[in-house]
Amino acid sequence: MLILEAEHISRSYGKTVALMDFSLQVAAGETVGLTGLSGSGKSTCARILAGLERPDTGVVRYAGKELTRPNPGIQIIFQDPAGSFNPVRTIYQSLSSVLTLTGVPRSDHPAVLLDHFQRAGLQTEILSRYPDQISGGQAQRVAIVRGMIVQPKVMILDEPTSALDVSVQAQILHLLKHIQKEHDMAYVFISHDPSVVAFMADRVIGL
User: Which of 39, 70, 156, 173 could form a disulfide with 76 if both were Cys (CB 3.0 to 4.6 A apart)?
Assistant: First the structure.
């Protein structure tokens, strides 16, 4: 069953063409890899697939319905996870606000976050820290937790390991594989590194 589709999407910024006539189909539980050179439109594609931007032409569908705005069923993980957190809020405060939006009672937040932190291999004291007080690898795991706690069906992973050293990169990739198997999520995995895409993806599309 198809969970995410893009049909002939294009996006320009002024006179600069960022993405041209791109189509994609992702089945439930599948990993589709997107690879291409710098400037090929990978990150633009990621934002459109996540509903953060609208294409100039074409259509994106999630679970058979046109995607016109962000949907909790689709989460995106960025290359710079620390930069996507509010620098003046602790990790706990940031994650707790996500749980509140999804309707989880505030009294349940500590137990829910503890469970997810254990699954992601994170120490609980990280919850009391600020984004600039944790390592790149820790920040990426926290970003994965933030995406996971809304129980999405699709995860868009935009260069999620390119800023990490090789050993941490391998840990994150194996964590992502484990999470996908456990929750039967679909991934769109975007990277300029063919070896990383080959390790993660069931099939690969070039941009």
Answer: 156
